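Propose amino acids for all 302 sites.
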C-alpha cells in the first residue's frame, strides 16, 4: 500500500568548516511523483541525497518517510543510485545484483529472479556473466540502475542517472522511471540534462548554494519566468525596438530580435513598429525553458 506522505526533506543544514553545504534545505517528493533536483556542481544536491540515505549526517534538520523518521529498516526499502559508481568491478553482473538484492533482505530465489528480470529489461542479457570492469561506461550505468531497482524499493533516489547513456539507454531509463512513479513510488533524481528534467518531471526543485530557491511544477516555473517576444523582420535595422517604452532588447541578429516585454506593454505597438521596417515573418511569444530559468537563478545568486 502506497503511503499518503512521501519523502520529506525538512530544513537540512550541513557545514564543512566555513563552507555551507546546505542551509535549511526543504522539499517533499510525493508518492507517485517524479521530482527533478537541479543545480550547479557543488550546489548541495549530492549532499542532500547522501543525508537522506544515511551516508552523511546533517548538522540539523530531519528526513522523514511516510511521515516517520528514517530508520535503518526503512532505508533498506530505498533504491539509491550514486553519481560515482558503487559497484564491485571484478564481480559478474548477475552475481553482483543477486548479492545486493540479498543484502536488502530478499530470499535467494527472489533475488535471482529479480536480477534476471532487470538484466533483460535494461538490455544487459549478453553481459550478465561479464565482470563489471569489462563493461562500457554506459552499460556500467545500466547495472548501477539495476542495483537500485533489484530489491523493488519503495523510494528511488538517483544522482545523475542519465550520465554517460546513449539515446536508446536514456529512453529505456526514462520509461523505467515513469513506470515506477506511476506505481506510486516517489522518484527524485538530479541531472544536468535539463531538457530531460523538463520532459519527465512532475515538479522541479532548483538549488543554489545549498538552498532551495525555486520549487514547483515545470509549467508553473516557466509561467512565472519572463517570457520573450521573438520577432523576425528581415529588413529591420539594428536597434529598431530600442526606443519602445517597456521593452528590453535581449538579442538581435540578422533580423531576428528577442525582446523582453514589461507588464502592460501592448504587443500591437511592437508589431506596428516591426511592420514599419518591412515584412514580418515571425511574431511570437516564447516561454522560458527550464534551462533558461536555471541560468537566471544561478546568475541572480552569484
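Proposal:
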Amino acid at each position: 500500500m502506497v503511503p499518503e506522505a512521501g519523502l520529506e526533506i525538512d530544513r537540512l543544514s550541513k557545514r564543512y568548516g566555513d563552507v555551507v553545504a546546505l542551509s535549511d534545505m526543504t522539499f517533499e517528493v510525493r508518492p507517485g511523483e517524479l521530482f527533478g533536483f537541479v543545480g550547479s556542481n557543488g550546489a548541495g544536491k549530492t549532499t542532500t541525497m547522501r543525508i537522506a540515505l544515511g551516508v552523511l549526517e546533517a548538522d540539523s534538520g530531519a528526513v522523514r518517510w511516510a511521515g516517520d523518521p528514517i530508520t535503518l529498516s526503512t532505508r533498506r526499502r530505498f533504491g539509491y543510485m550514486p553519481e560515482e559508481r558503487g559497484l564491485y568491478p571484478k564481480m559478474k553482473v548477475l552475481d553482483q545484483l543477486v548479492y545486493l538484492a540479498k543484502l536488502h533482505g530478499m530470499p535467494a530465489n527472489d533475488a535471482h529472479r529479480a536480477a534476471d528480470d532487470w538484466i533483460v529489461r535494461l538490455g544487459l542479457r549478453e553481459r550478465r556473466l561479464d565482470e563489471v570492469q569489462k563493461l562500457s561506461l554506459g552499460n556500467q550505468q545500466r547495472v548501477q540502475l539495476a542495483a537500485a531497482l533489484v530489491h523493488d524499493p519503495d523510494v528511488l533516489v538517483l544522482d545523475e542517472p542519465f550520465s554517460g547513456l546513449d539515446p536508446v539507454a536514456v529512453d529505456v531509463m526514462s520509461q523505467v522511471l515513469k513506470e515506477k512513479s506511476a506505481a506510486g513510488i516517489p522518484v527524485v533524481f538530479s541531472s544536468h540534462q535539463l531538457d530531460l528534467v523538463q520532459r519527465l518531471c512532475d515538479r522541479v526543485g532548483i538549488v543554489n548554494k545549498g538552498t532551495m530557491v525555486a520549487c514547483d511544477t515545470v509549467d508553473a516555473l516557466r509561467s512565472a519566468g519572463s517570457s520573450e517576444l521573438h520577432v523576425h523582420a528581415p529588413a529591420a535595422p539594428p536597434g529598431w525596438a530600442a526606443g519602445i517604452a517597456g521593452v528590453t532588447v535581449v538579442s538581435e541578429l540578422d533580423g531576428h530580435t528577442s525582446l523582453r516585454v514589461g507588464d502592460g506593454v501592448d504587443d500591437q505597438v511592437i508589431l506596428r513598429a516591426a511592420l514599419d521596417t518591412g515584412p514580418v515573418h515571425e511574431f511570437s511569444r516564447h516561454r522560458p525553458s527550464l534551462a533558461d530559468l536555471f541560468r537566471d537563478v544561478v546568475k541572480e545568486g552569484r
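The chain has a mean pLDDT of 91. DSSP finds ten helices and 14 strands in the chain.
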